[in-house]
Queue: 2 jobs
Job 1
Amino acid sequence: MLHIKSVTCIKQDRCLFADLNFRLKSGQIMQLAGPNGAGKTSLLRIIAGFSAPDEGQVMWQGESIAKNYDEFARELLFIGHKTGVNNQLSAIENLRFWLQIQGYDTDQELYSLLAKIGLVGLEDVPVRTLSAGQQRRVALIRLWLNDAKLWVLDEPFTALDKAGVAFLQQRFLTHLEQGGAILLTTHQDLTTHFAHLQTVTLEYRH
Amino acid sequence: MLRQHSYWQLFSAVCKKDVQLAFRQRAEIVNPILFFLIVITLFPLAIGPEPGLLARMAPGIIWVAALLSTMLGLDKLFRDDFNDGSLEQLIASSYPLPLTVLGKVVAHWLITGLPLVLMTPLFALLLNLDSQALVATVLTLLLGTPLLSFIGAIGAGLTVGLQKGGILMSLLVLPLYIPVLIFATSAIDTSTMSLDYSGQLAILGAMLVIAIISAPIAISSALKVSVS
Amino acid sequence: MWKWLHPYAKADRAYQLCNTLLPYFAVITVVCMLVGWVWGLAYAPADYQQKDSYRIIFIHVPSAILSMGAYSSMAIAAVIALVWQLRNAELAVIAIAPVGACVTAIALITGAAWGKPMWGAWWVWDARLTSELILLFLYLGVLSLYHAFEDKKAAGRAASILAIVGVINLPIIHFSVEWWNTLHQGATITKFDTKAIDSSMFWPLMVNIVAFAGFVGTVTLMRLKNEILQREKHRPWVRQLLNRG
């Protein structure tokens, strides 16, 4: 589905990675590893289409994403360092807004979903009053609310407790079973066993 | 999981969110108006309170104050969305970005421009404008302040990724405001002479149409650069 | 368009193109400038009203024309940069900007100097001078935006967007200022009467315009070469070039 074709990224005169090639197929999960500053986030942002690679292409279903970005965006779920949660609004308002801008139906069981992820009673308070882990959960609920094929997640486990991490990985499994693909960075090891786990390691280059 | 593609839903969601946020922190709405009011108060103190002189200078004073007070809100227009990552979500949405941007600019106008238009009678009173000039002032502000929002949003989009974008944005945007200033003040001037000023209004209207069509595209590409 | 441009999408080809063009531009500049200045300043007849002070038009008019010309070429480069995603065109935008700003400043300064004997004041809110001043602001906006970005790739694109926005606004600004001027000052002295200028002054003026165009072209090409080298300094072809001396 996703094909990274000789992608090069140069930032501030430093070559982060050059001529990077890999493919991600339906049902596969890929973990990007590497030390801080190796360019993991930069790579994710290139794959999500926010920045253009200095050389090479990102192909989705055989087509360059730069050519038909709207089509690709429909199949993409991106959750970055900055989670896209407005901390003045409540969890419910944030989710409704997100559903609307992604074109989903907003009449969904948001309350029961919030309960499932452990945010009972916190649905209507401004997100800024929640703890870091709870805020992260609000952002991650999107994983239950989309039909995107490709998930691109930058450090999804940050600030989550053990139960949260395990719960998230269960969700990964069902997504993969349904034919999705996941690309993520994490410094933690994945605790669940994934049948089709690939690891790409980016070295720190000087 | 149902996906309905309704451009109206996107537009209203984006617009509503910003207006809602502004109403939660009322300062965002109140401060530009207070700023406008204070700037207008400064002029009689600086140049003297003589009614004739004030009425003569009123169009210029009102419009320069309007330019400055819209600048206040512009810096915040995309800043919060940029900082919390919402901008990335908006770009990665399956909707066209110019439409999203249109929603945000309209919200900005509702928050900063519309209150100015509504407050005009008060300003007219302070600056000794007669009723003819008052009507002209309201009309020019009605056509001109959305223009300020559209043009200003281009500057805001270009500078949102920068640490100290605020002053730079004013440098980029203020020269582009000059035609609006010229035609708006001249319309008010003409009205005080009891002449027909529909020509100036037509030009402002034409510029507004051009801005509505072309500015969202420029703003979107500016935002994409800022996010990259 | 693309076919024609494509070979120069590569930085080394663009660099070579600059090298080939540079001597022609330089020669045109030097020859025209010498001819134009000597002709205009020494041989062209004095104006019957303004005496010798009119001779400043041999600098003022070319720089005013080129200030607009440079802005348009910058905007064209910006369109190419954004539409065809050509990095070299981005570099061209940023190569032209300071040159254009300088030419605009020259036009402003000579305009003010000319205004002193004509109007008795260094600065008069004449339509042309005011437009020129706003043009300078637009140039400075592009430049300061470019330098505010740390990431030079983003900087180039941001500057390109602003240049295009500016060029769309430029006619509107020009028209509005012109209109504002007639509104507020009625018929003030304009520097050019509509009557054609005498051919004994016209031809040296033309030569000077060509000289200025050549000058802007030369300096831009030199700056462009520099920008290309700076951006591509890690590439093998630049290293080879440096090793050769």
Job 2
Amino acid sequence: MAAGGGAGNKTYSFKVVLLGEGCVGKTSLVLRYCENKFNDKHITTLQASFLTKKLNITGKRVNLAIWDTAGQERFHALGPIYYRDSNGAILVYDITDEDSFQKVKNWVKELRKMLGNEICLCIVGNKVDLEKERHVSVEEAEGYAESVGAKHYHTSAKLNKGIEELFLDLCKRMMETAQAEERAKGNGASQSTTSRRGVQIVDDDPQAATAAGGCCSSA
Amino acid sequence: MAAAGADMKPLQNAMKIAKVAIQLDAGNRHKEAYCEYLRSINFISHSLLEDAVSRQGEIVAVEVEKMLRLAEQCLERAKSSFIGRRDEPATPTSYTTPINLAALSLTTTLAVSPGKIVSPQPQEPVIYSGPKHNPRPGQRRVLSEGGGEVTTFLPPEVFQSLQIVESQDTRKELTPIEEASRLNQKLKENYEARLARLPPAQARTQKTSLTLSLQRQMMENLIIAKARQDALQRKMEERRLRLQEEANRRFAASGTITAEEQEQRVLYTNVLEYEQDHDWPKLWKANIKKNPDDATLVSGLVSCLLSCPDHPVMMLLKRLQYRVYNRLYPIVSKSLPASPALPMKPSHSAQSLLMSDSHQNASKSEVGHSMSSDASLNISFSHDHIAEDGDGPHTLDRENSFEDLEQFLTQLDWAPSHGDPDVTFEQSQLDQEESLVQDLEMRDLKEHLKAIVKDIHIAIDQLLSLCLLSFECLNTASSKDLCVASIEEAFFTPLWSSLLALFRKVHRERELCFESSMRLYRDALPGDVGVASKLYPQDPVVLHGSYPYDSAVQELRLLCRDCCPQRKLECIVRTLRLICACAEDYSCLHEAESKTAAIGADDLLPILSYVALRCELPQLVSECAALEEFIHEGYLIGEEGYCLTSMQSALQYVESLHTGGFQLHNTKFT
């Protein structure tokens, strides 16, 4: 393993879980993010449920695995097995739907309870194109986010607004968390297998970098 | 006789009797020879017994040893002359030569019988019904997969002997002594042929000299062979020491050595030793060094390694495998896991009626009852099983069916408590005790399961590290993955059915829930479990007589056929992909909304639940629980991990269905 944490030839692998009620548009959001100008054939074989994206942030490679979850009430009991070992969570609500914001609050409580403070939370108010019908006030949402140590974003999947920023910001935060964890462990020599939360820091493998398919890449 | 023998030592006396026997044997007087051999044995045992009891210790230890050996040889000869007498009374057998006692002792003590280890081979097709060879694939319906094979676990000894048989495939080189004994066998045959050709008059005169020369030749052969063997052994010993040192150097000595380190050194020494005897590892290594980017070479090397049963990696694999099986066997073979009833099985309709009946009783009555009704379930199953096996060409061997019978009888003991459900008070008390016992048993089972899972993880790690130690060229990320996958496949394949049996015992309650939902929703439409109406065709004509997502259901059913976690995982991924493909096709039928083709988890989970229901395999619950334990960490975060998680969620949802957590729309039933 290369000496000194944070050297250029490492790849971070992050798991991000996508939570949100049925009609808040989380599927469109993530589809929007993964369909990009370089590659029109964006969708993996699992379509919008599971998506991967390769990024390069400040010279470091990041592999994102985005896990969609079912928003229906009857599948809620199954949440924990989805979000265990997640590095980040994106909690989406519809700004025109007060109820969906309440759901987000429930999830935040659960995530904090199960995963502690190490998971990076993003609370996302989607459908800002429908600003006129807004039912959740910006102040309330942002105030709540701050109170639980989450960041708040506004997006519109329809207009492709705010999505790129959301993911980029989340990635940076997850990297910071991972690096802090590495430092805490001392000299970053710990292998991915010992990492409790599944942050995988692997030595760069040129074969894997070229052979990996089914996902898009952006610079 | 007694007076004459009084001043003789018992050994000499015994030899005298034996000599007489041999002479009789040579004169083709088998019957008398046979008696004389027995007399000699009798004499030896009598005098040794007397000596031992009186504790006077007149006979010295060396002599006791010699006498015992003599008795052994006499017994051998008695056996063969008895066989000779019985089988071919007219023709002289191969044992008719008067060989002097010394020669006799040399041949019998030195010659190793090479056939001994191979003996279980002919039994293989009869007993082995494990997953690897899949002897009766035709008889297995997908539905019966879960229940049918519960009783067929082999005792660990048989399991091990099968491992050995597999590794005996390659011809081993003969040791010098084995070679010599073969040569002697030939000499003896020649001698007999020659004697038989001679006219009787000549035979009498020449026999002695021929016999003597045969004896001399055989003796010489054996002595030379012995010397060669000793020299070889010395050389091997020296080499082993040298390699051991090399191994020690490789693992830089850092103070105290733990037991594991010690073991690793020994294993590495074995690897070095193996490489001295075999060229293929060197060739592969050189080849890979020359073409480091050739992935096919790596897989070639790995499969080559797996096909060499005497390579230390494979020897270790067998040993660890056996250890796991040895732990599993007593648990999974003790009492049968109550396999969920299979009411859809057409060929055993009467029995399945009985099973589903008793099962419904169980779910209706209080929980404590379930144990006793399980017993009756089991009985019908073992019936079922025996009947099925009797039909096929692969009948169980005696011992196994005896074991079955035993199990059957112990289960019958349970039956009375179930047979009289009206005896209420005592019954409920009994039930309480039973459920307590059951709780304790379950806790035990879970502990066992945990320990075995841990053992398996350690075993795989150990195998991988020895593998990488033997072939450093495999120590790259991608080659390592390939290595692990291959090792796991070899390791799990013979173990999976017994491993799964343990998981099924632990997850029995969950499987029963799944089964109830399955029965309740047998004819449900996708809409009944919440699949959006645009994601399946409303018009049955489109489906050509099948049901929606048929192809995904078929794919998922194949999961139980594989015997290694990685392959099962791939099967789940394929199932989910098929679901997505089907969903896309179906939504294209509703051309109005063809824009939103990509489905997310909101759509995927209901469909997956529907597919799992349609699959009608309660054991999926246990299979997935097992996969969860053995899925590779690298896959956990990726597509495989997502698919397994989704599968688990769908299964849990299906389990919850029968409790009424979700409303069934009866109107939609066809």
